[in-house]
Write a structure and sequence with these properties.
Oligomer: single chain
Strand content: 15-25%
Strand order of the largest sheet: 5-4-1-6-7-8-11-10-9
Number of helices: 25
Helix content: 40-55%
Bound molecules: GDP-alpha-D-glucose
C-alpha cells in the first residue's frame, strides 16, 4: 500500500522534559490539524525535528520510542545545526528575503553549509524510511533542497512540496547567492504548491530566467520530466473553530473562564465599548509597529472614540534567540507605553498588551468577543488568523480589516482591505469598521464564512494529494513511451536484419545541443564519427533533415556520404549529388519583411535575423526569456497581416519564428524521398514540432522518436541529444 510521508521542520507534537522524564503534547498548529486525518488513515509517518536537543543516544532512543506511537520519526539536530540551519539560513536568510526585507537578510557561508547538511539529513531519513512508490509531502522554506535529493536517489517516490511563505519576485529572489541551488532543490518535486497565484508566477519566472526552463501554462519542462505548479490556498479547521465559539458563547456568564469574564466586564464598562483585536507572532513581517502608529493616528484623528475603543494586542513569542526579534519587542513595548501614556485614563487603556501564547479556548474567547480584527502584516504568505476570526463569528457580527499584502486578502475580498504602510488609510479603515451597519457586517461575514467552510483545511490537504496523484499519471504517459534497454535491443535486431534502411535525423536539438547563436552549433568530432559509421553500414541511407540553411549544411556535411535536406525541405542534396531546389521561388517578399524583423531586433536585445533562401528567421534564444516570448507573439500578429495572400506561412520553432514559403515541410520532403524506393527499416528522430510533419508522413511501421518531453505523435521518447547519440552508437555497435 502506498503510504504518505509528511515532512516538516517541526513534528506535529512537542517533546518536553520535566523532572527527568520525556513527555509529548500535541501541537495545535494548522498543518498538524489539517493533515491529521491523512496521517491516521494512510498509515503515514511524519518526519521532523522533535524541538529538543538531546546529548545522548539513550535519550534519543527514548524519544524515538515515544514518537513511534504517534507515527512520528525524529530527525535529531544538535545545537550548532539549530543555530546555523534554523536560526541562520532559514530565519535570517530565507525568511527576510522571501518577505522582501532585504535589509535584514544575512548571507553567510556557514549558514548555507548547515542548511545543506540538515537538508541532506532529512532526505537521508526519508530515503531510508520510504517504501517503493510512497508519496512524500515536504513542507516549507526550511527544506527546499530535500525534493531534489530524494528525486535523484529515489525516482520511484512521488514528491510534493508546499511553500507556506511568499515566493518573492524574481528581482528579489535573484539576490540570493545560492539561488540556482534552491530552485533546483525545489524542482525535484512532481508538484509544487503555493498559497497564491502571485507566488506561483514568481517561482515560474525565476525558474525560467535563472535556469532557462521552458514553461507551458503551469508546467515547468525539465529535461527528463515536467514539474507541475499549482495554487492551494491553505485554510483552517472551520468546524473546530465554529464549534468552540458556539460552546463558549452558550455558557452562562458565571460559568465562563476568568479571562472571558474579564472581557465581558470590560465591554460592559461603557455602553458603546468596542474591542479591536490584533494577533500575530512577534515578527517584523507582521507590521506591528506601523499598526500601532496607525492606531495612535486614529485616536488623534477621531478623538470621539477615546475611552470607547481598545486594541487588544496579542503578540506570541517567536524566535526569541534572534537579535532582530528582541529589538522589535523593545520597540513595540515602547510604543505601547507611549500610546497608553498619551491617551490612557484611570478607567481606560487604549492598548491591552499581551506577550504570551494563549490556550486555544482563550483564543476563541478573544476572537468571538472582538468587534473588529485589525490584521495588517507588511507581508504574509497566507494569514490564518483572519480566517479563524471569521469562523468564530457565529452571530455574523464583526469586521475584518486585512492587509492587501497577505495571501488571505486574495480570498477574503469582502474584508476592508488596506495597504498596511498607509497609516492614514488604516486609521480611516478602523473608523469605517466601527461605523459599519449590522446588515453589512452580516452580509460580508456570511459570504466569507461560506467560502472558508467550503475550502477548509481538509479540502486543502486532499486537493493537494489528489493533484499530486494526477501528476504521476501524466508523467507515466511519457515514461511508458520512453526508449528502454529492451526497445533498443529490438531496434538493433530489426536494424541488423533489415535489407534496406533509412534514417531521417533532425540536427539542432536532436544530434546537437542548442547554442545561443545558430552558427555556434558546429558538429563535433564525436558526432561526425557516429554519423560516418551509420552511413558506412551496408544498405543504409542516412538523411539529415533540418531547418538549417543549405549553405551552412553544405559547409558542415557537403563532403560527407549522407543525403542532406535543408530549409525544412526546400533543398535536397542526394549523397554525392548536387543541391536541388524542390520548389523554385522568387524572393521579393523578403524586402517587405526584413525591416519589420529589424524593428524587432532593435526592440529585443539579444535577438537576431537569419536569412535563408526560402525563409527568414527571427531567433530570440539569447533575449530576455519573457520579453522574447512576448515579442514572438507580437511578431506573429504583425506579420500575419503582411503575408496574407502571399504563399507564405509562419512556423514557430524552438525560440525562433520562421516565415517561409508554404507547401514545403519535412513531411513532404521525406514523402518524396521515399517514392520509388523500398525500405524495410525506417527510423526518424526529431525534437521540435516541425519534425511532427516528418513523423506524420512516414509509413505506420516506421520507428519515430521524439527528443524531449513535449507532446508528440512519435511512438517513442528520449530525453536529450546525448541519448540520441548513444542510441545511434548502440545500433551500429558490433555484438560480441
Ligand atoms: C506561516 C506563514 C501562513 C496565534 N496566537 C496563538 C495561536 N496562534 C495561532 C493562530 C494561527 C497561527 O498561530 C498563526 O498562523 P498565521 O497564518 O497567522 O501565521 P504564521 O505563524 O506566520 O504562519 C503564514 C501559515 O504559515 C500557514 O501556511 O498563513 O503566512 O507566515 O493558527 O491561531 N494559537 C494559540 N494561542 C495563541 O496565543 N493556541
Amino acid at each position: 500500500m502506498q503510504r504518505l510521508i509528511i515532512v516538516s521542520n517541526r513534528l506535529p507534537v512537542k517533546v518536553q522534559k520535566s523532572k527527568n522524564q520525556f513527555g509529548i503534547t500535541p501541537s495545535a498548529g494548522g498543518l498538524a490539524t489539517g493533515l491529521k486525518s491523512y496521517h491516521k488513515s494512510h498509515d503515514s509517518v511524519w518526519i521532523g525535528w522533535p524541538g529538543i536537543s538531546v546529548g545522548s543516544a539513550e535519550d534519543e532512543n527514548t524519544i524515538k520510542v515515544l514518537l513511534e506511537k504517534e507515527h512520528c520519526l525524529p530527525v535529531f539536530l544538535d545545537n550548532k545545526m539549530i543555530e546555523n540551519y534554523y536560526h541562520g539560513f532559514s530565519n535570517a536568510t530565507i525568511w527576510p528575503l522571501f518577505h522582501y526585507f532585504t535589509e535584514y537578510t544575512i548571507f553567510r557561508a556557514t549558514y548555507w553549509r548547515a542548511y545543506k547538511e540538515v537538508n541532506l539529513l532529512f532526505a537521508d531519513r526519508i530515503i531510508k524510511h520510504a517504501d517503493k512508490n510512497d508519496t512524500v509531502w515536504i513542507h516549507d522554506y526550511q527544506l527546499m533542497l530535500v525534493p531534489d535529493i530524494i528525486k535523484e536517489n529515489r525516482p520511484d517516490l512521488r514528491v510534493g512540496f508546499f511553500l507556506h511563505i511568499p515566493f518573492p519576485s524574481f528581482e528579489v529572489f535573484r539576490i540570493l547567492p545560492w539561488r540556482e541551488q534552491i530552485l533546483k532543490g525545489v524542482l525535484g518535486s512532481d508538484l509544487i504548491g503555493f498559497h497564491t497565484y502571485d507566488y506561483a508566477r514568481h517561482f515560474i519566472s525565476s525558474a525560467k530566467r535563472l535556469l532557462g526552463f521552458d514553461v507551458n501554462f503551469n508546467q515547468i519542462k525539465l529535461e527528463k520530466r515536467h514539474v507541475y505548479i499549482d495554487v492551494f490556498p491553505m485554510s483552517i479547521d472551520y468546524e473546530k473553530f465554529q464549534r468552540k465559539a458556539y460552546e463558549i458563547q452558550s455558557k452562562p456568564i458565571q460559568e465562563r473562564s476568568k479571562e472571558h469574564q474579564d472581557i465581558d466586564r470590560f465591554l460592559l464598562g461603557s455602553p458603546n465599548r468596542k474591542l479591536i483585536l490584533s494577533i500575530d507572532r512577534l515578527d517584523y513581517t507582521k507590521g506591528l509597529t506601523v499598526r500601532l502608529r496607525a492606531f495612535r493616528h486614529f485616536l488623534r484623528k477621531y478623538s470621539e472614540y477615546r475611552e470607547q475603543v481598545s486594541l487588544v494586542l496579542l503578540t506570541v513569542p517567536s524566535r526569541v534567540e534572534v537579535e532582530k526579534y528582541q529589538s522589535l519587542k523593545r520597540e513595540i513595548e515602547e510604543l505601547v507605553g507611549s500610546i497608553n501614556g498619551e491617551f490612557g485614563t484611570l478607567n481606560w487603556n487604549p492598548i491591552i498588551y499581551f506577550y504570551r501564547s494563549l490556550p486555544f479556548a482563550n483564543l476563541i474567547e478573544l476572537y468571538s468577543s472582538s468587534d473588529i480584527a485589525l490584521l495588517t502584516p507588511l507581508r504574509d504568505g497566507m494569514n490564518l488568523v483572519a480566517k479563524e476570526f471569521i469562523a468564530t463569528k457565529t452571530n455574523h457580527k464583526g469586521v475584518l480589516i486585512l492587509s492587501d499584502m497577505t495571501g488571505a486578502s486574495k480570498e477574503l475580498g469582502e474584508a476592508i482591505s488596506v495597504n498596511p504602510y498607509n497609516i492614514e488609510s488604516v486609521s480611516d479603515a478602523i473608523y469605517e469598521a466601527l461605523n459599519m451597519s449590522d446588515e453589512e457586517q452580516q452580509r460580508t461575514i456570511s459570504i466569507m464564512q461560506e467560502r472558508i467552510k467550503r475550502y477548509d483545511i481538509y479540502k486543502w490537504a486532499s486537493e493537494f494529494i489528489e493533484s499530486l496523484g494526477k501528476t504521476e499519471k501524466k508523467q507515466a504517459e511519457y515514461q511508458a513511451r520512453k526508449v528502454s534497454d529492451d526497445f533498443i535491443r529490438t531496434l538493433k535486431s530489426e536494424f541488423t536484419k533489415a535489407q534496406s534502411k533509412v534514417l531521417f535525423l533532425d540536427y539542432d536539438g536532436t544530434l546537437q545541443k542548442f547554442y545561443d547563436h545558430p552558427k555556434a552549433a558546429i558538429p563535433d568530432k564525436e558526432l561526425y564519427e557516429i554519423l560516418d559509421i551509420i552511413a558506412s553500414v551496408q544498405q543504409t541511407e542516412l538523411v539529415l533533415i533540418s531547418g538549417r540553411d543549405k549553405d551552412t549544411f553544405n559547409e558542415w556535411f557537403g563532403d560527407q556520404n549522407y543525403t542532406l535536406i535543408a530549409e525544412h525541405g526546400a533543398w535536397i542534396k542526394q549523397r554525392e549529388g548536387k543541391w536541388k531546389e524542390r520548389k523554385s521561388v522568387h524572393s521579393d517578399w523578403k524586402e517587405n519583411l526584413i525591416p519589420v524583423l529589424e524593428s524587432y531586433v532593435d526592440r529585443t536585445p539579444g535577438s537576431l535575423i537569419e536569412e535563408k533562401t526560402h525563409s527568414l528567421v527571427w531567433h530570440y534564444r539569447k533575449a530576455d526569456i519573457e520579453l522574447g516570448a512576448l515579442r514572438a507573439l507580437e511578431l506573429q500578429d504583425d506579420i500575419s497581416n503582411i503575408i496574407l495572400n502571399q504563399d507564405l506561412e509562419i512556423l514557430e520553432g524552438n525560440k525562433v519564428i520562421e516565415i517561409k514559403i508554404t507547401g514545403i515541410n519535412k513531411g513532404n520532403a521525406a514523402f518524396d524521398y521515399l517514392q520509388n524506393r523500398n525500405f524495410d527499416f525506417i527510423m526518424a528522430i526529431g525534437d521540435d514540432w516541425t519534425d511532427e510533419y516528418l513523423f506524420q508522413e512516414l509509413p505506420i511501421t516506421s520507428y519515430t522518436i521524439k527528443v524531449g518531453t513535449d507532446k508528440s505523435i512519435a511512438k517513442y521518447y528520449v530525453d536529450n541529444y546525448k541519448d540520441v547519440r548513444e542510441l545511434l552508437r548502440t545500433l551500429t555497435k558490433k555484438s560480441k
